[in-house]
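Justification of computing resources. Each target in the renewal requires a structure prediction run like the one illustrated here; the chain below, 327 residues long, is used simply to show the kind of job we budget for.
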Amino acid sequence: MDFNIGARREVMQHIEKYMLDNMFNYLKPIDTIWQPSDFLPDSTDDNFFHKVKELRQSAEGLPYDLIAVLIGDTITEEALPTYESWLAVVEGVSKSEEGGWMKWLRHWTSEENRHGDLLNKYLYLSGRVNMRQLEISTQYLLADGFDIGTDHDPYRNFIYTSFQELATNVSHRRVASQSKKNGDTLLSKMCGVIAADEARHARAYTDFISQIIKVDPNEVMIAFEDMMKKKIVMPAHFLRELGKKAGETFTHFADAAQRLGVYTALDYVDILNQLINEWELESLQGLNESGEKARDYVMKLPNRLLRIADRMKSPSLDYKFSWIHSI
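Resulting structure tokens:
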């Protein structure tokens, strides 16, 4: 992947002040933000077992596909150490600095860390899940790592995180909605607050790219084209179960999400259009020939993807996950 390392570092240093000035518009104070224990039965309470029984009764009504998607989302959130280590090696992020981009990364990680904690505990208490199989999949995902095609380039990384945070917002929001429809209001609240976090984080990364566009529009446009040609892959694209190859289970997880309408090919196109509009790419100035060519590709891509999505058939339910206990 070709990019000017020195130029990238300069741009990251240039927008660092903007990030530090606005950081807590995107993040919430640790003392007041929600914690997993706010939603889970209190083990010190005399009514603990009664609350657990109520939780289990609500979880009994959740459809198979919804449980599968929730588990896949949980494992994805639990693989946070992989994402933190990936962002820590981006050009312009110094591991020794007291503030700057490492400050952002630490605070972003601290907020994200709550998501897997909350969902994991819920699934443990629900009685619907083979936790050992879930834990094996989580360890595999951490050990296997991932390759999302960004290398150490901050532009490609922030384009990826802009897209991915919007995608996780959609997924958690839809799981919240379907949980409520199926009578699990507690799970609905959990996924709702996680979705709200993801929306704030998406705003941060899209704003970072907006700031970069002001000083280096051509390289941002070329980076965006490159990421879209590779296709934005989900961070859990190597998801597997015991005895499976890396990525084998992810296909079935994605199929379940598509069947439910939790995250579909149309959502992918909607997010792409949202970023095109957010970054005002159609009116972007200062592009050279390569940048214009990149913009032309990106602007035509949504309609091309819509034609493909229209021809896609809804995947059939023909797979049993090792994660899920049958009732």
